Amino acid sequence: MRTTRGALRILTAALLVAAVRCGSIDAGSRVLPRGANPADAERYAAHDGSSAFVCDGGATTIDRSRVNDDYCDCDDGADEPGTSACANGEFHCRNRGHRSISLPSSRVNDGVCDCCDGTDEHDGGARCPNTCLAAGASRRDEIRARVSSARGGVDARRKILEGAPALRRRWQDESVKLEKDVAAQREIVRDASVAKEAAEAEEKKATEAEDRLNKREASKNKGDDDASGNETAVADTAVADAVPTPTPTSTETVDEYPVIEDDAVPELQAIDDVADEREESEEERGRRIAQQWIHGDSESTGTAPSGPSSPADVPDAIRDRATRAKKAANDKRDVHAQAQRTLTELEGKHKDVTKRLSTFFGPNMELAHMVGECYKLTVEQYAYEVCPFGDAKQDTTRLGTMQPVDVKDPRTMVFNGGERCWNGPARSITVSLRCGGGGNKLADVEEPSRCEYAAKLYTPAACDPGEVDALERELAEMEEEARAAMGAPHDEL
């Protein structure tokens, strides 16, 4: 059964239809049922004088007078945008001077002011003042600030894009140079390795000779009865070791390798003196020279040698040779280690620049300028740091390493694989890029889920000229709505 209120609305609708027929009202552009979205104006307009209203995708047709009569005739709820009769209906708050919104029609006339213009409580018990102009003023100020920042961001973005090709060329030049530096350093490492091995070979010989000498002296100090017999065998090796074997090098002469020259120990000159005595075997000659070294006998004159070349000096010469050989080997090891460290550093730099050249930095390389940069923000007692294309952390706790930028979503940076929470997931942070004209700035860090963080990074790189134009249009529309709200006639049923 229709209510009295519904009957009054039918009468009102009939009068308006008559006005439309007389041409006094443009139904297609000015008259909308209360709560209808202006975007659906064509749907509610009367065409060619027809009073029919079509809904449910064309399946249902009712008389236009039954729109907003507080009775749900259409399954899609389109006939009751301004009442709560249809459970699935929507009420559109025009909110002139502020921002329009849509509500479930169940909230119409429920005693709560949901629309700033109060239109949702037109027949309810609540008295709703129109606060749209005041609320809209704040919103308009916000939009103006965003437009100003976005305009500056667009200009800054233009400069970033202009510098992107030069940045890429610089990386390419760096890659070529590093490739050459790595090749040259590998040669240096190879040469240093050869020199080190030669020095270590000499060190080994000299050390072994010194060890045998030390054993001989230790045995002698213990009063070994067979010392004289052992002296002969020890002397054979000690004298042989005292004459170093020449060591070839690849690119340099190893002058620092100490040797015991023949003229420094005259006893060893016996090797040359007997070289021509062909009737003497190598074994006999070695034994004879050893006896000379041990007993101080002279091979050719029978007189004891004089000066620093006496047999007592031979152990000192052997020890001196070992000391010098160890120092030379240590020096060569240090040179080789430093050369290897330099090579590792150069290879790391080359790998890094090669990776940069193959990384996606946005459709126009607009994110490339962030490489090597870090952005910080302190929230309460925590200090956050985000390094695009690197790592993110909270104080000293790693929040993750940045993953490659998604080609389909270049305005989102995802860092994952951070330190694991106690009995929880590994930490991660998602950084959303927002247009900002004041440089790159980290903001709004929060933790929506345990150990899963979110933040915003305001940057000119995210400023789209098309979006700036949209903001400017929104601002112009809001200002027009504000002017209309101060003097426009009420045009809803």
UniProtKB/TrEMBL annotation:
Q: Short name of one Pfam family for this protein? A: PRKCSH-like
One example of a Gene Ontology biological process annotation: N-glycan processing
- Region called Disordered, residue ranges: 196-316
What segments bear the compositional bias annotation Acidic residues? Answer: 253-265, 273-283
Q: Where is the signal peptide?
A: 1-22
Tell me which UniProt keywords the record has, alphabetically. Disulfide bond, Endoplasmic reticulum, Signal
Q: Which residues form the MRH domain?
A: 372-465
Top-rank taxon of the source lineage equals: Eukaryota
Which protein are we looking at? Glucosidase 2 subunit beta
